[in-house]
Design brief:
The protein is an alpha/beta fold. Helix content is about 50%, strand content about 15%. It has a six-stranded mixed β-sheet with strand order 1-15-13-10-11-12, with helices on both faces. A six-stranded parallel β-sheet has the order 4-3-7-8-2-9, sandwiched between helices. The protein has a five-stranded antiparallel β-sheet with strand order 18-17-21-20-19, sandwiched between helices. Strand 20 and strand 21 form a beta hairpin. The chain is flat, with a radius of gyration of 44 Å. It starts with a strand and ends with a strand.
């Protein structure tokens, strides 16, 4: 390629900068190191071409590693029947190759799954750029190697310089041979170690003549074609330069990581302008080579205009964009009819230092009319941005033979036919009124018709209508009629003006319509993403999120899909959709697992298992894949559609991840609360158990060891009894709470006398009630009540006991029972301090104890009261009395006898 470079003013950077560590950079470096430590290491044995000894050197290095005790296997090594190479293969475990049926022929490929299952420390994989047979998991062997690395397996492999994607065009120019098997540059650049295997051209030619590379017949043919000395020398220089640039980049990265001062090459930012031409691929590769040498970042920019492009050009554009991504470039698409304005504006906004464009071999109508030259305008308006212009591969003497092209029209023939009929119909109608309105007015009718056609048809049909209208107007309407001869200069000028106005008006209207259509598509997609975000934010729960995802994909992409996501147990689970025809088989679920594990898409229209009828897209979260969307895709996405699809999946994934985090937070909170309750319960029970046990042990030891008088013995026996009652009460509370928690409380109601219930409770609390005035109010006409006697006895027992623990000695404790409109109302009233207003809502909570509560107690009594009352379909409430003290009110529906 011929290169023209225009240098302009560049900004000087300060020689002195504060060398202060950036926390974000340090964190990013630590993250990269952590991720790198989990992956396997890739070592490439790199050479200028076949026959330099890459496989031989790789096997020698493997033997050295084996002597160190490393576990090494051969995944795939091609010896080409060279005796020296075959001798080095012996001594290694060889993983059997996998047979794949292809066009009624069995082809052997590396068995990726067998190597992963074997899990060696190092695996030898020859020919990194090899293309796998159809039916393999991946299209290319380097993808197999990447999966091995992701599984923590180190890989030794081999590669020739001509297989690097960015060098294929240069190699084709040097050797005249088109390279079919290529490797993305990022695989080479991201490798951990590269060992250059180098010999002189004379040594290689001698090896060829000795038959150590190919058979004698093939060697003779190779020397006369690819392996000419000049070719080998150029390839050798290329491989040496690539390795030297890599060493320089490694030194640069090392100095930055270690914060060593030096002249950095960073700060260069290239912008490559690409189009629908195949020559854009050469532009991208050249930019990659230049950026690699200069340590620059690269972006690719495509300017979308109102000009419609054909399906073939669309396909070529997608190929160019895919290549840019493979080369590691960021790809951006902007819309503007002015290419120069779009490129310069983007470059200025993104701080671009160099713009790289191609010089077209084709002369456009615009260039021929001198309406502007793209290259000259770009140089003029680029300001302080350097511009690199790459010429074509056409020789100088051929440039005058370059084709001149007119704008490309993509309208269908039916549209031209429809336009012709409309023009003909308009002409017929106009012919009958020409004598009334005059032939000049007919031109206005034709202009109006052309303007209307521009609202519905493309540029081609509109131009055709304008030309046809001008000819018809001249032939049928301008005097003399039925001839193209025009006598009056005024009519000639009028015809020319008519044609120009019709042409410009129709073209501009058509362009506006196309621009409006593109804007409308983008607006619809933006609105769709907004609506998706709005719908997702309005729901909670996994099921609702998945339901919205199904509905959205069907509505906006018209795709049938199946969604597989991780559940709370971190396991993949298919979320079925009613009436879905997608039924995932066991083999397809294995693809789902692979996609989730590697966070890479697979299936139809991808490089991984492209023969499958479905396409598998990962739902990639902030740290890992959360699931997979399986779609039945008929057509491959365009770049714009793919961006829309990825943005939609990103929104769905983000919401699903937030739901997972919300559930995880809730679980963490529950665990924290559970631990808090456990500590509270443990401390409370420990205290409550220790006091009665200590009393029992102390009294019993005293009785056993000493001779005491009868009154003292009775007192000690009483202490033991009181402590036993207290201990029994604690155990009963724990058992009752356990029964409530498990839902095993089932009341067994029967008719009973409320007076008997009150007497039983007062008798059981006789000792506790001695310091108080205890009053029971029950109406004489109180009917029998239908309750569970045992449960209600426990309820009243806990409420009255609570009153004795919180009321001052000598105060009044009341038990009131009323029947109010078939509702049993029971109140326990004391004259204690009552409850703070802020604690009233919590008094029935488990283990809750007020801030001013006396020492002792587990905080279970009142929660048991609530549980037992609710078991009777009633409710209990707590309040403060008008004159102080606490008031507990129980309401239970009564049953008539």
């Amino acid at each position: 390629m011929h290169t023209i470079t225009f240098h302009t003013k560049q900004t000087q950077m300060s020689d002195f900068e504060i060398d202060r560590p950036n926390p974000d950079e340090l964190l990013a470096a630590l993250t990269r190191e952590d991720e790198k430590s989990k992956r396997g290491k890739l070592k490439i044995f790199f050479g200028m071409c076949a026959g330099v000894g890459k496989t031989y050197t790789m096997l020698q290095a493997a033997h050295d590693e084996k002597k160190k005790g490393n576990d090494i296997v051969i995944g795939y090594v091609e010896t080409h029947k060279r005796k020296e190479t075959e001798a080095l293969v012996s001594g290694f475990e060889i993983i059997p190759r996998k047979a794949i049926e292809y066009k009624s022929t069995s082809v052997e490929e590396m068995d990726l799954d067998a190597i992963i299952a074997r899990n060696p420390q190092i695996v030898l994989v020859d020919e990194l750029a090899h293309t796998n047979a159809s039916g393999s998991r991946h299209n290319k062997r380097y993808q197999d190697v990447q999966e091995l690395l992701e599984n923590g397996i180190n890989v030794f492999t081999t590669l020739n310089v001509q297989h690097l994607e960015s060098r294929t065009d240069t190699v084709a120019q040097i050797t005249g041979v088109i390279i079919r098997e290529t490797l993305p540059d990022f695989v080479f650049e991201n490798s951990d170690d590269i060992e250059l295997v180098d010999i002189t051209p004379d040594e290689l030619l001698q090896r060829l003549s000795d038959g150590k590379v190919y058979t004698p017949e093939r060697s003779k043919e190779a020397v006369n074609n690819f392996f000419r000395k000049g070719n080998i020398t150029a390839l050798r220089e290329m491989s040496l330069r690539i390795v030297a640039d890599r060493v320089d980049n490694q030194l640069h990265d090392y100095m930055q990581d270690k914060r060593i001062r030096g002249p950095w090459k960073s700060g260069l930012h290239f912008l490559v302008a690409i189009g629908v031409s195949p020559s854009s691929q050469g532009l991208l590769k050249w930019a990659k080579n230049l950026a690699y040498s200069m340590g620059a970042n690269v972006e690719a920019l495509y300017v979308e205009t109102t000009q419609r492009i054909s399906a073939k050009d669309h396909e070529q554009l997608d190929l160019n964009i895919d290549l840019a991504k493979q080369l590691g470039f960021k790809v951006r698409i902007v819309t503007n009819d002015d290419l120069v304005n779009a490129i310069v504006n983007y470059a200025q906004k993104e701080n671009i230092t160099h713009i790289i464009v191609g010089k077209s071999r084709l002369n456009s109508v615009k260039s021929l009319l001198k309406l502007g030259n793209f290259v000259n305008r770009l140089i003029k308006y680029s300001g302080n941005i350097d511009v690199y212009i790459l010429g074509s591969d056409t020789s100088v003497e051929d440039k005058f033979n370059a084709k001149t092209v007119i704008p490309q029209f993509t309208s269908y023939r039916r549209q031209y036919l429809t336009v012709s009929l409309i023009v003909a119909l308009t002409s017929i109608l106009s012919y009958f009124v020409k004598d009334i309105v005059g032939y000049q007015t007919i031109s206005v009718i034709f202009l109006f018709m052309v303007s209307l056609l521009a609202l519905f048809y493309g540029t081609g049909p509109v131009l055709f209508a304008a030309t046809l209208s001008a000819l018809i107007w001249d032939y049928f309407f301008i005097p003399p009629q039925f001839t193209f001869l025009i006598q009056k200069p005024f009519d000639i000028l009028l015809l020319v003006m008519f044609f120009i106005v019709a042409l410009v008006n129709g073209t501009l209207t058509s362009r506006v319509r196309r621009q409006e259509k593109k804007i409308r598509i983008r607006e619809e997609r933006t609105h769709a993403l907004y609506q998706l975000t709005k719908d997702l934010n309005s729901v909670s729960g996994f099921d609702d999120v998945i339901k919205i995802a199904y509905d959205y994909i069907n509505r906006y992409f018209k795709l049938e899909c199946s969604i597989v996501v991780k559940n709370d147990m971190n396991q993949l689970e298919v979320i079925p959709l009613e009436n879905s025809t997608i039924k995932l088989t066991e083999s397809e679920m294995s693809i789902v697992n692979w996609v989730e594990k590697n966070s890479l898409k697979a299936g139809k229209f991808t490089n991984t298992l492209p023969s499958n009828e479905y396409t598998f897209y990962p739902l990639i979260g902030s740290s890992s894949a959360l699931g997979v969307v399986v779609v039945k895709q008929i057509n491959i996405f365009t770049y714009g559609e793919e961006q829309f699809w990825e943005s939609s999946l990103s929104q769905i994934t983000g919401k699903y991840e937030r739901e997972l985090l919300r559930n995880a937070t809730k679980k963490t909170y529950m665990i924290s609360e559970s631990e808090k309750l456990y500590k509270t319960l443990f401390n409370s029970i420990s205290h409550e158990l220790r006091i009665p046990i200590a009393a029992i042990m102390g009294s019993s030891e005293t009785l056993l060891e000493q001779q005491l008088s009868e009154p003292i013995q009775k007192e000690l026996y009483s202490e033991i009894n009181i402590a036993s009652i207290r201990l029994n009460r604690l155990v009963e509370n724990l058992l009752n709470m356990s029964r409530l928690e498990s839902g095993r409380i089932t009341p067994h109601p029967d008719w009973c006398d409320i007076q008997d219930l009150a007497n039983s409770v007062s008798e059981s609390l006789k000792h506790e009630l001695e310091p108080f005035k205890f009053s029971v109010f029950i109406p004489e006409d109180m009917p029998l009540i239908f309750v569970d006697f045992g449960l209600m006895e426990q309820v009243l027992h806990n409420l009255i006991l609570n009153a004795t623990q919180n009321a001052p000695a000598g105060s009044l404790i009341q038990l009131k029972v009323l029947m109010d409109n078939l509702t049993l109302r029971i109140q326990v009233i004391d004259q204690g301090t009552g409850f703070p207003e802020t604690e009233l809502a919590s008094v029935f909570d488990k283990f809750y104890r007020g801030k001013n509560a006396k020492a002792g107690g587990t905080g279970l009594g009142l929660s048991i009261v609530k549980g037992f009352v609710e078991a009777h379909n009633g409710n209990v409430s707590a309040s403060n009395g008008a004159k102080g003290g606490a008031v507990f009110t129980i309401k239970i529906p009564a049953k008539e006898m």
